[in-house]
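User: We ran a pulldown and think these components assemble together. Before we commit to crystallization trials, I'd like a predicted model of the whole complex to look at. Sequences follow.
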Amino acid sequence: MPADKNNTEVTIYDIAEALDVSPSTVSRSLKNHSSISSDTQQKVKEQAKEMGYRSNIFAKNLRRKKTNTLGVIVPKLNSNFMSSVIAGMEKVANENGYNLIISQSLETAQKEASNVETMFESRVDGLIVSLAYDTEDYSHFDPIIENNIPLVFFDRVAYYKSAANIIIDNFKAGQQAVTHLLKQGCKRIVHMTSNLARNVYEDRFRGYKQALEDYDIPFDPKYLIQNDLSNQAGQQAAQQILSMDPLPDGLFVANDTCAIACMSTLQDHGIKIPEDIAVVGFNNDPISSFVNPKLTTINYHGNEMGKVVIRNLISHLNGDNNIAMTNTIILNAELIIRESSVKAS
Amino acid sequence: MPADKNNTEVTIYDIAEALDVSPSTVSRSLKNHSSISSDTQQKVKEQAKEMGYRSNIFAKNLRRKKTNTLGVIVPKLNSNFMSSVIAGMEKVANENGYNLIISQSLETAQKEASNVETMFESRVDGLIVSLAYDTEDYSHFDPIIENNIPLVFFDRVAYYKSAANIIIDNFKAGQQAVTHLLKQGCKRIVHMTSNLARNVYEDRFRGYKQALEDYDIPFDPKYLIQNDLSNQAGQQAAQQILSMDPLPDGLFVANDTCAIACMSTLQDHGIKIPEDIAVVGFNNDPISSFVNPKLTTINYHGNEMGKVVIRNLISHLNGDNNIAMTNTIILNAELIIRESSVKAS
DNA sequence: TTGAAAGCGCTAACAC
DNA sequence: GTGTTAGCGCTTTCAA
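Assistant: Here's a predicted model for the assembly, 690 residues in total across the polymer chains.
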């Protein structure tokens, strides 16, 4: 029975009584308050340990009106990128005495909104979000903003009220990827991407167009394929590409797994990668270096991104820097050239 | 400044005052207590909404000595399986008014132990764990058990004190996988797996041996390859397999991504899959149907497993069934036959 | 350097 | 059907 788990609960009063001091002295000692003699502190801590004391986080939160908890909402946890981001976040958060509540929007605005509400009810001290595929209206974040809960978007961001944004330079990454393809001699480059309302996809697309422009190649809308970047979508896109005449000679996909599904389907139809079509993905998912040919891609520092997000959020909460909350931080990303895009010269 | 977020906080006392009723009436109304007239309940709820009331979860937890929070510790979040498990857990938890705190052990016993401690400090009502790669000593779970916090292991489990286990029948799955290979005519089947101290790997290995025995093929230790099932390990294992003489004709890997890395490396060296070596993986990761050839694998119902875990935990917390906490629940898994294992007959 | 005391917002036993 | 009241365990101001 889970019932009797409380009757052993030790409080600061029990410690105070045992040591014949006041509860305040115990409370202060336990947090190394400078006004308590180190002798007393020592005694209190020993007694606490001996009695198996554990601080009651709820009484503390109730009193302090601060939860030391940060909420994290991501579209989906199933990628290596997200798992790295979360690991980075957890590390910095724990080092600073914060805990994380993590939830998935599963790419729908509706679940995202309900998650935001849960986080709000849980009184997180700060909220961290990477937007769902189809979020267009941001009003579910209003209560967060109105209650002065700091809001940080990362990766899939929005320029929304006082929220901070932490991203990579998707424009530059897209431009680099496509410039690389152009340098390989590609002239007809397909770009496969997702909802252009999401900054990550829009910026990569702008980078694609810029690179074309740099090489005096006009943008042809038929080379823009938009879908949800799922594996299935990658297969279908392959069919679409196969039906193009002349056949494209380059392919820049906004996501590795989709690139791989597409590449594999193209190969099934006798297309040689990179000879016939050179391919560049995005994310540097581990699988990208285990496919045949190994996939050229953009490397994203997920772990670092997670750390930066939390560092900035916490320093804002500490009042150290408020500026971050009205600003955008851009992290590095780099092109990793592998076999899938290098044409013999 | 995050400071003034409190001065707008509305409490049940404010509502009580505005309506000229007692705080208890407000409290009761807000939770649909049957003793309050529906008329009063209605009024209270309206007033609460109008005043922008939100319940203080800490005062509630402090009073009720229950957090309605469940802790989840998994090795790593980066797989489709884990993300499905978590999604299933979240769904059932939320439906029942519970929240989840999720953390990753990143496959180390050390971080697992520190996560358990954090969960304990956070006073989760129940703890859910899938064990790290190298956890051998379980004493970090002792405080959980001692405080009568229900503990449920899933997937990677341990027969430990009062903990419940929720798993698939890994023995049967392994047996099925290998029997399938044997039916394809394979005689020299390599099994690649991980730490046999983890039930999932041990049971699959037993299934492998059982299948061989059923076909009167003696187990040859040289066909057992143990590593961490990473992509790199898959590549290395391929080298090891290539050096075997005679070449194996079947391969059963305890994990899809590793199977794929291995398969891809074998192909690089001119091995034909499935003609030369038939391959079966494990997990039914989405990528498995997008490689060439598509990978035969064992399908795991992650979402369902997550739901079952939470359902059992909650019904235990409700006192509905205690029996689950001393028992093992086995879910179905099934072999999905694809191209990588089917030899032309 | 320490103590007394009030109160964070809520729940629930007990009273009416 | 509703109200009174006493805490849950902690922090912190004020006083000594």
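Confidence is low (pLDDT under 50) at residues 1-7 of chain B. That may be worth checking against your pulldown data before setting up trials.

User: Thanks, that helps.
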